[in-house]
Amino acid sequence: MEPEAPKYARLREEMVRRQIEARGVTDPAVLEAMRRVPRHLFVSEALRDQAYGDYPLPIGEQQTISQPYIVAEMTQALALDKDSRVLEIGTGSGYQAAILAQIAYRVFTIERIRSLYLRARRLFDELKLFNIVTRYGDGSKGWEEESPFDAILLTAGAPRVPEVLLKQLKPGGRLVAPVGNEHTQELVRIVREKTGFREARLGGCRFVKLVGEHGWKEP
Ligand code: SAM
Q1: Which of 57, 73, 91, 108 is deepest in the core (most CB within 10 A)?
Q2: 159 preceded by cis ω (within 30°)?
Q3: Architecture of domain 6-205 in CATH?
Q4: Could you tell me if the CB of 93 is within 6 A of ligand 1?
């Protein structure tokens, strides 16, 4: 990889200060990850100069890379440490997985659109992110063979949290997901406790649809 232009490091620092710290994200590991990952490499060349803006961007196939603040907020809500095994559903550009990979031990990520899956996989290799394991398929069913996970993150909006995913959480494990209708959702955080599940709501959000057996039907 070529060294990055200094302007991207400057834009990234501004992004962390103005969009993320200013809105109350405090976890040092999350802030450090957001400072380190070159977000501009996860979008097309034409959009590179907009990569550090306070909004989502298109990544092709009618999908998006999420707004930086949402990525930071969801990552903080997962409460990861260096031993965590995390499942992400919806690889997309690969940016969120790259952030998770800075903090956790291993990241398992699933994408249902083949071209996005292939592009993200290539980028993970180029960036030497060897603790990310990729899969092409329907992530709404989770990843049974690799379960249980310390944390599960859905980066696509679901009509409800799939039961099958809750079963793939370790005791004490956290799941974060946008849940709602096809247009707007609420970010939900569920913790698996000894005797059941505890749920908290983190606020409104807007994601593309989780499409699959336990999500929305194929368009
Ligand atoms: N995490 C991504 C990133 O950092 O760029 C953003 C994800 S984008 C908002 C949502 C992604 O979820 C899309 O790439 C979409 O194809 C994918 N997706 C939707 N339903 C899925 C499913 N059942 N299994 C796996 N991926 C799915």
Answers
A1: 91
A2: no
A3: 3-Layer(aba) Sandwich (3.40)
A4: yes
CA 61 / ligand 1 centre spacing (Å): 11
**44 among known catalytic residues:** no
Q: Mind giving me the DSSP string for 111-131?
A: ESSHHHHHHHHHHHHHTT-TT
Cα gap 51→5, rounded to integer Å:
14
- Identify whether the C-beta of residue 108 lies closer than 8 Å to the C-beta of residue 146: yes
How many residues are there in the chain? Answer: 219
Q: For residue 23, what pLDDT is reported?
A: 96
Q: Is 134 in the pocket of ligand 1 (CB under 6 A)?
A: no
Residues 106-156 have pLDDT tens digits of 999 999 999 999 999 999 999 999 999 999 999 999 999 999 999 999 999
Assess contact for 141 and 121: CB atoms under 8 A.
no
Catalytic residue among 44, 66, 140, 147: 66
Residue 3 clears pLDDT 80, i.e. is over it: no
Has residue 20 got a pLDDT over 90?
A: yes
Question: Which distant-in-sequence residues (6+ apart) come within 8 Å of 84 by Cβ?
Answer: 78, 103, 104, 105, 150, 151
pTM above 0.85, yes or no: yes
**Three-class SS of residue 12?**
helix
